[in-house]
Write a structure and sequence with these properties.
The complex is a heterodimer of chains A (about 260) and B (about 450). Chain A is an alpha/beta fold. Chain A has eleven helices and eight strands. Chain A folds into two domains: about 120 residues, 3-Layer(aba) Sandwich (Rossmann fold); about 120 residues, Rossmann fold, CATH 3.40.50. The two termini of chain A are about 15 Å apart. The chains are: A alpha/beta (about 260), B mainly alpha (about 450). At the A-B interface, helix 2, helix 3, helix 4, helix 5 and helix 6 of A face helix 9, helix 12, helix 16, helix 17 and helix 18 of B.
């Protein structure tokens, strides 16, 4: 087994009266979902590789309230927000990075009016800035020339207008970046948002993730790249239902970079 | 004789404007049934957005065929209406082509109107075929059956007839000028340029001046009466977008699409709950004692805000939203367009009650269940594809969210599994039943 990951918590930093450069907001999926935990670890390896001084909240982190808010439970959302803001402000957090576009959107856009003002970036934006600062080196590696398509997460793309950061990273990997028929501002949802992840779909003739997977399969990719743990789950399920899981991998952009670098 | 027609014209004009004013007043009254919302901020940005999206049609052309045709009809409609100014002056004062003193420029204008009229006619005919003959997904939805489909076609027929009348009026006028008929021929020679209607002349070949005058007058009258009727048809039609698209874009949300408003009433309660100094047994403040507690979310149109109701009146039912909706594309009942149409239908229903009784009296109906089904609301992924697709800044998602808020916070009526995940968030800070103390376990797992 590789050596254990070093993941300092804010509580430990506080005890040493240190402040990290950035807080890594792991999110519920990143903490508990088996597939998403791999993304979390890949991202942590990249942070170490780039020499980023980061910390996590660990057991002091709690759901941002995003699924509750979008399901209509504004009360629960604001309770979660108030609790999280208290913790974040207590640690005097200035900058937050997260690998979940839902956490990203909620903390960035909906916490300020409730007293939580931070600079919030999505992990693809953060990795891109590390790259530009020369702290992270990304070169072709094993994905060079592979056909890869990027599935835009709604809350990163349409929700916050960020379409290029993940694509810039993929280009750095020298992959053959191919776009689906529906991409960027017109990208089709994976079907998980708005609380759908946690409920059965309404009656219809197809599941949304199958529709989106079919759009991805149209461009015959070797890898479907994602930037959201929920999209990742939905697309992975879609690929499995098409019996293509041996030929097509669904991977987060952070995983692609980490694995290209053999981290 | 002349004076009678001038008086008739004045009466028609006054009646048309009177009805239009009454309709606009009702429209404003109905929109004001909604809650106030402050969108007076960032006016510079709002003007810019309105110029770009409403005036400049920047989002229309994202779908090039419909977009370009729409730009033609839009530009044609606006520019040809300059001619209405002359028609009104002529009608009131019994003059003929009063603006022809402008000479060459006048000819240029009339010539341009004719070319635009032809383009509009072609555009409208293509629109009609797309709607009635081509199998276009967004024109085949359930919610378009009946009145909405007829409404769309009536608008197209109206425009076809108006353009034809305009060209017939010009053609006969041109022929009368060529014939040197009194009142039509001018000292300056032929006034106006007729690049399109000149090709209609063979139709009128051999007709006497008297017949030509009857046709010309009939076309002139029907054209202007048609415009006045069309103006008053707007209030009853999806065609209101030609006016409302502008304020609608102006008042649309400027924040990132992913951002959804925080309910202030909830913020107050949460603050109170989290305040260690708050007295849990305190009696409500004196003035609040009789006040009705604020309702969370929306079950009827009065619970929505004014921008949302303006959205509903502005919707022209093009269905771009629905054709991008992941739920709709996979056969679910949700159609963002239907959300907007239902909202408008309900506002209008309430408006009718107010027209009859002077005030709203409960009719035992509401937007939720009687119009919009829970099944539709719960199918939304909040992906914002509908908001992005709308060419004029309508936000169906905000209505869906407000209605979900009512279902969850007033009725505790979330779908069961969703309710469980919310309980999990409440108990252990994650939508799944994992202990918060295990949140960092991933570090040491393989």
């Amino acid at each position: 087994m590789a050596e254990a990951l070093k993941v300092p918590t804010m509580a430990e930093y506080m005890a040493e009266s240190k402040k990290p450069e950035v807080l890594f907001w792991v999110g519920c999926a990143g903490s508990f979902d088996d597939r998403a935990k791999k993304i979390t670890k890949a991202f942590v390896k990249l942070l170490h590789n780039a020499g980023v001084d980061f910390a996590v909240l660990g057991t002091e982190e709690s759901c941002t309230g995003d699924p509750a808010k979008r399901a209509g439970n504004e009360f629960l959302f604001q309770m979660q927000a108030a609790t999280n803001i208290e913790v974040l402000n207590g640690y005097e957090i200035k900058k937050i990075v997260t690998a979940c576009p839902h956490c990203f959107n909620t903390i960035k856009n909906e916490y300020p009016a409730l007293g939580g003002n931070y600079e919030v970036v999505h992990h693809t934006q953060f990795l891109k800035s590390l790259l530009e600062e020369g702290r992270l080196k990304v070169e072709g590696g094993k994905f060079k020339g592979k056909r890869i398509t990027f599935h835009d997460p709604c809350y990163l793309g349409r929700g916050n207008g960020e379409y290029e950061a993940p694509r810039d990273l993929l280009r750095k990997l020298e992959v053959e970046l191919i776009e689906m028929r529906k991409c960027k501002s017109e990208g089709l949802c994976c079907g998980a948002g708005g609380g759908q992840m946690f409920k059965e779909p309404e009656p219809g003739n197809k599941d949304v993730n199958i529709e989106r997977t079919e759009q991805a399969l149209e461009v015959e990719p070797e890898v479907i790249a994602a930037g959201c743990p929920f999209c990742n789950t939905m697309m992975t399920d879609g690929v499995k239902s098409k019996n293509q899981e041996d030929d097509i991998a669904v991977m987060d952009v952070a995983e692609l970079i980490a694995s290209a670098e053999d981290l | 004789m002349q004076i009678i027609s001038q008086i008739l014209f004045l009466l028609a004009l006054v009646a048309g404007i009177w009805f239009f004013t009454r309709n606009v007043k009702r429209l404003i009254r109905n929109i004001k049934l909604g809650k106030e919302i402050d969108r007076s901020d960032r006016s510079g940005e709002r003007w810019a957005k309105m110029s770009r999206i409403a005036l400049g049609q920047s989002k229309m052309v994202k779908r090039p065929i419909a977009g370009i045709l729409h730009v033609i009809v839009y530009v044609g409609f606006i520019i040809i209406n300059i001619e209405v100014l002359e028609i009104i002056i002529d009608g009131l004062f019994g003059t003929h082509r009063i603006l022809s003193f402008m000479g060459g420029f006048y000819n240029f204008l009339i010539g341009s109107f004719e070319i635009l009229a032809l383009l509009v006619l072609i555009g409208v005919i293509i629109f009609w075929t797309r709607r009635n003959i081509s199998n276009i997904y967004r024109f085949l939805s359930r919610e378009l059956k009946g009145w909405p489909k007829n409404d769309a076609n009536y608008i197209l027929y109206f425009e076809m007839v108006l353009m034809l009348l305009f060209l017939v009026m010009n053609a006969t006028d041109y022929q009368l000028q060529l014939n040197g008929a009194a009142h039509y021929s001018q000292e300056a020679g032929i006034v106006g340029a007729f690049p399109v209607s000149q090709f209609l002349l063979p139709i009128f070949d051999g007709m006497s001046n008297a017949t030509l005058i009857i046709i010309e007058r009939a076309a002139w009258w029907l054209h202007i009466l048609g415009i006045l009727i069309f103006l008053n048809y707007l209030y009853y039609s999806k065609h209101l977008h030609i006016l409302l698209a502008f304020p609608n874009v102006y008042y649309s949300k400027l924040q990132p699409k992913g951002e959804m408003d925080n309910l202030e009433a909830v913020t107050k309660e949460v603050k109170l709950m989290m305040d260690p100094d708050a007295d849990p047994f305190a009696a409500p403040a004196e003035e609040d004692a009789d006040a009705e507690p604020e309702k969370f979310g929306a079950s009827d149109v009065m619970d929505l805000n004014r921008v949302q109701l303006l959205n509903a009146y502005t919707c022209t039912e093009c269905g771009r939203c629905t054709s991008e909706c992941p739920a709709n594309l996979t056969g679910k009942k949700l159609s963002p367009r239907k959300i907007m149409m239902d909202t408008r239908d309900r506002v209008e229903e309430i408006g009718e009650i107010i027209n009859k009784n002077g005030k709203f009296e409960d009719d035992g109906k509401q937007l939720l269940d009687d119009y919009i089904l829970r099944e539709e609301l719960w199918a939304c992924t909040t992906c914002n594809a509908c908001v992005e697709a709308c060419p004029i800044g309508i936000d169906p998602l905000s209505i869906i969210l407000d209605m979900r808020r009512y279902l969850v916070m007033e009725q505790s009526a979330a779908p069961n599994e969703l309710g469980i995940s919310m309980t999990n968030i409440e108990n252990n800070g994650a939508p799944w039943p994992y202990n918060q103390q295990d949140r960092l376990n991933w570090v040491n797992e393989n």
